[in-house]
Write a sequence for this structure.
């Protein structure tokens, strides 16, 4: 009964737009807001990045990660890093830092392990979505990468609240469904996620794949099925078939190979 009361309180807060964010995400949120402003100038973006050492370090690290450094030439300054990855991918990095921070301050070892598994799942889904968008579904790869990074934001938020409310997530099935959708929608708003991305993420719950793959939602669904690490909150899947989506084994092998390298480098670059 107490667990149900706690969960109801979290859902009610989310429905009112009163999500509880750790203070450590403020710098990344400020950067996101600046990048969302079409009149924001490069020098202002660089000042905000340099104003937070962690942001500066992660920006340079991400620019040197395999996903953005295909030529193998390292950059050593924030300005060069921002110019390489661009505003859209800098926005993705800021969102990733926000998501990761929810799991970075957990005290419960079991919850920390779940947060680590959720992040590794997220990194693989983002990398897979990036490659699938480019090679298969004709979806903008950068948008797919961003959507993959933030698609489990609601799960990270619930993990952070479970640290304050022991036993909250002992039965994951108890917080699936409409309640999870409310929390996910409000997280999308709080993180200033563009509506097309937000809609694709929210519509993942209960969605089924029908060939041929179309748009961002299908890109994410395929990426989640191919991810070698499952979400700790996802129902078990017995090697679901992707027949009709990726019938070319050589293409599938290439997608898996490219995405594995991207996931490893991206995860290391964004680890906080």
């Amino acid at each position: 009964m107490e667990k149900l009361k706690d969960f109801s309180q979290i859902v009610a807060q989310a429905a009112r737009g009163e999500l509880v964010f750790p203070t450590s995400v403020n710098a990344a949120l400020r950067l996101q807001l600046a990048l969302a402003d079409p009149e924001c100038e490069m020098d202002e973006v660089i000042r905000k990045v340099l104003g937070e050492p962690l942001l500066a370090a992660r920006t340079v690290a991400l620019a040197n990660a395999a996903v953005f450094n295909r030529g193998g030439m390292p950059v050593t300054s924030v300005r060069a890093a921002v110019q390489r990855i661009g505003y859209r991918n800098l926005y993705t990095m800021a969102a990733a830092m926000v998501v990761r921070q929810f799991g970075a301050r957990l005290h419960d070892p079991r919850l920390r392990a779940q947060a680590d598994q959720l992040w590794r799942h997220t990194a693989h889904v983002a990398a897979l979505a990036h490659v699938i968008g480019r090679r298969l579904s004709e979806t903008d790869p950068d948008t797919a990468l961003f959507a993959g990074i933030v698609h489990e934001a609601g799960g990270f938020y619930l993990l952070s609240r479970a640290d304050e409310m022991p036993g909250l997530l002992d039965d994951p099935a108890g917080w699936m469904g409409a309640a999870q959708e409310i929390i996910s929608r409000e997280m999308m708003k709080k993180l200033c996620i563009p509506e097309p991305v937000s809609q694709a993420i929210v519509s993942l719950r209960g969605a089924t794949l029908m060939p041929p793959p179309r748009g961002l939602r299908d890109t994410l669904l395929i990426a989640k099925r191919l991810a070698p690490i499952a979400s700790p909150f996802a129902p078990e899947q017995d090697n679901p078939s992707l027949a009709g989506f990726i019938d070319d084994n050589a293409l599938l092998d290439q997608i898996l190979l490219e995405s594995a390298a991207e996931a490893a480098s991206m995860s290391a670059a964004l680890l906080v």
